[in-house]
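Narrative of activities, Objective 1.

The group set out to show that a structural description can be obtained from nothing but a protein's sequence at a throughput compatible with the screening campaign. Below is one input-output pair from the validation batch, recorded exactly as produced.
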Amino acid sequence: MNSEKKITIAIDGYSSSGKSTMAKQLAKTIGYRYIDSGAMYRAVALASMRAGLVSPHKEPDVDGITALLPSVDIDFEVTCDGQNTLLNGENVEAEIRSLEVSSCVSPIATISAVRHALVKMQRDMGLSKGIVMDGRDIGTVVFPDAEMKVFCDASAEKRAARRFKELSDKGASVTYEEVLENVKTRDYTDETRDESPLRCAPDAVRLDNSEMTIDEQNQWLLNLYNEVLASL
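Output recorded for this entry:
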């Protein structure tokens, strides 16, 4: 890699479309910083749940969550096998991946104050470039001028199967049907929200990885990165 050429890489897509797995591996391979924007929204959702401001059966208290935001500090801790999400210094990586938090994160992400606060944090993290960030609106809102943009997709059933296996491997007591319903609900909420809805940026390269292995999609992304870098 030419160390003088640092770019911003934006990877967007649907929930459980494999974008985080790809983004993490690419960042590790090319020596960039990986930023999981979805984990940031999950952390806000968890903080709001702990404060009794939202639950899977309760609509978000928008005013309460807006007032809570200044006390929410989110950071990432690099580990030997990836990174942990820190909420006010506490490692909440495992907790934010629960189905309960997943059920609350899309409603939380529709709140304008939440999106504005996190977009500012994300832009600050990317000021010096050399980052790979994944999420829902990275290429459209956070970094519209990113040199490399990818939009990941896969069928809802395929994504639910991946998510179900991930949760089951961690010992979570969930059914495939519950996970599939969660995936479909999140898709609808992400696509129809007023604030920064999920969209494929016009200049993004679209990838349907329904039938790809992890190794195949990682190689595809690395090849695209090398093509983009060579064109600059």
